[in-house]
């Protein structure tokens, strides 16, 4: 019988979810940490397994990511490269990061290169102001859109910015969970 074929021979409609549900708790935690490296979140999401369907998993994960604290933001940022820098390593998380930022690097004409240089300057301003890297859910967003977001966020106070980064981490975690489910 095939790996994702339940008794009776019917094919499991969501092999990615079946794979996650079949993992040991420790293996599930390892997989989830690639999506969002916050111990509390990993533990809370893993505690909800097994999940009856994809929507239940995504909803459960999203609900627990909505409470990301400022302290958790600092720890999670350590695993994210700056926008415009290639993620190091060959693992799943590094590959995801490179893919999520691919639209940023796509502007190879003179105008795109200028926007990227201005972005690098604004990113330095952001780091000086907030003492952390600028993090955004960059998936599918080009340099001009990211620059506009970055400049707008420079006007935030520290508390507001930590909340914004927490929400961006939540969005990234949701996208990565879907990738986890599709990596069968």
Explain the layout of strands and helices.
Elements: H1 15-22, H2 25-33, H3 39-47, H4 54-65, H5 70-77, H6 92-100, H7 110-130, H8 143-153, H9 158-182
Helix pairs in contact: 2-3, 4-9, 5-9, 7-8
Radius of gyration: 18 Å
Count of individual helical segments: 9
The fourth-level CATH homologous superfamily is Oxo-4-hydroxy-4-carboxy-5-ureidoimidazoline decarboxylase
Provide the CATH topology. Answer: UraD-like
Which CATH top level class fits? Mainly Alpha
Mass-distribution shape: globular
How far is the N terminus from the C terminus?
17 Å
Low-confidence stretches: 1-5
Strand content: under 5%
Strands, count: 0
Provide mean pLDDT, rounded.
86
Order of helices and strands: HHHHHHHHH
Task: Give a brief outline of the structure.
The chain has nine helices and no strands.
What does it look like?
- This protein has helices spanning 15-22, 25-33, 39-47, 54-65, 70-77, 92-100, 110-130, 143-153, 158-182.
- With 184 residues, the chain is an all-alpha fold.
- The protein has a single domain (15-182), classed as Orthogonal Bundle (UraD-like).
- Helix 4 (54-65) packs antiparallel against helix 9 (158-182).
- The model is unreliable at 1-5 (pLDDT under 50).
- InterPro entries: OHCU_decarboxylase (IPR018020), OHCU_decarboxylase_sf (IPR036778).
- It holds the Pfam family OHCU_decarbox.
- GO terms for molecular function: 2-oxo-4-hydroxy-4-carboxy-5-ureidoimidazoline decarboxylase activity.
């Amino acid at each position: 019988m095939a790996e994702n074929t339940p008794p009776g021979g019917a094919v499991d409609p969501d092999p990615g979810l079946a794979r996650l549900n079949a993992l040991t708790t420790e293996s599930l935690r390892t997989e989830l940490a690639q999506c969002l490296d916050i111990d509390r979140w990993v533990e809370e999401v893993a505690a909800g397994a097994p999940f009856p369907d994809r929507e239940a998993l995504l909803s459960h994960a999203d609900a627990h990511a909505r409470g990301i604290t400022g302290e958790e933001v600092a720890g999670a940022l350590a695993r994210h490269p700056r926008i415009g820098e290639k993620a190091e390593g060959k693992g799943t998380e590094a590959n995801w990061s490179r893919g999520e930022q691919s639209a940023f690097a796509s502007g190879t004409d003179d105008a795109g290169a200028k926007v990227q240089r201005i972005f690098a300057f604004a990113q330095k301003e952001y780091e000086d102001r907030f003492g952390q890297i600028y993090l955004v859910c960059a998936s599918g967003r080009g340099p001009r859109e990211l620059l506009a977001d970055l400049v707008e966020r420079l006007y935030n106070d520290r508390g507001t910015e930590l909340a914004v980064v927490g929400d961006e981490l939540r969005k990234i975690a949701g996208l990565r969970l879907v990738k986890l489910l599709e990596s069968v």
